[in-house]
Protein: chitinase
Organism: Streptomyces flaveus
Amino acid sequence: MPGSTGSRRRRWARALAALLTGSVLTFAALAAQAPAAERDAAALPKHAVTGYWQNFNNGATVQKLSDVQAQYDIIAVAFADATSTPGAVTFNLDSAGLGGYTIDQFKADIKAKQAEGKKVIVSVGGERGTVSVSDSASATNFANSVHSLMQEYGFDGVDIDLENGLNATYMTQALRSLSSKAGSSLVITMAPQTIDMQSTSNGYFQTALNIKDILTVVNMQYYNSGSMLGCDGKVYSQGSVDFLTALACVQLEGGLSPSQVGLGLPASPSGAGSGYVPPSVVNNALDCLTKGTNCGSFKPPRTYPDLRGAMTWSTNWDAVAGNAWSNAVGPHVHALP
C-alpha cells in the first residue's frame, strides 16, 4: 500500500535484471484520447494533490475526514475490504480505532469535503489487500460493489492500489463497467509500485493505457522501492530528484497524458520504510518536469506543464509532522503553470 514496508527486493532484482538484459522500454504509440482529467473530472483543478486518509490507527495522527488539510484535492479513503465474493469489496469504518467516529459523521464529512470542491474516493487494495479481479465474473462483482459503495457513502470514485498483481484484461473490464454505471464524473486513480510502471507490457501500465479516456491520475509510489530504470535506460536509486523525474518520464513518454501523472511520496519519514524525501525535493521534481528548472543530473526530453501533481501517504502522517508536506507541496502544485 502507500506506506507499505514489505520487502519486495528479490522481485525487483529479478524484474530489473530482465529489463536490463531485454527490451528496456516499450513505448506505446496511442491514438490521442481525451483523458478524464480534460474531459469531465468535475471541478478537479488542473494541478491536484492527492492524500490517503487512514481508516485505522497505526500510530499516526487519528483523523476524521473533516480534519484533512485543505490543500488536498483528492482524498483516498484507505481501504475497502475484500468479501467472500470474488472481486467484490465492501467498506467497514473503523469506528473504534478512530475514537468513536460514526458512519453518519463520516458520510456528512464526505459531503462537506465535496462542498469545498474536494473529491473523496475509496481505495482498493493496500499491502494487505486480497482483492483479486481475475475473470469476467469477478470484474462484474468489483464494478457492482464499488458502485454500491459510491451510492451508499457518496464516494466520487475509486483508487486502485492492488499490490499483489493485476490482470489488465479484467481490471479494464471492471473499470469500464464502473464508468458506465457512474458516468463521466467518475474519478479513477491508481497507485502502482515503481516496478509496475517500468514497461508498457506490465499489467498496471496496460490497464492505465487501456482506460486512458476515463483515467484521472496515476500516482506511482516512489518509495519502498529498489533501484529502477529511468526513461533514458539508466538505473536510478530512490531518494533523489532524479529518481522522481526519470521514472515519471517513463510514464510520460510511454503513453499517459501529463495530466494523468502524479508523484507519490511519503508525508514523513515514518510514512514509509524507505524513499522519503523532503518536500523541497518533491517541488524540485515538479519544477523539473513542468518547467525544466531545478533538475538534477537527469534532464527530461521535454517539459510537461500539464503534469497533474503529487500524492502522499498519508494525511495522517502529514498531520504528525505538522502538515509540513501539504503546506509545502500543496501551494507549489497549485501554482504550477
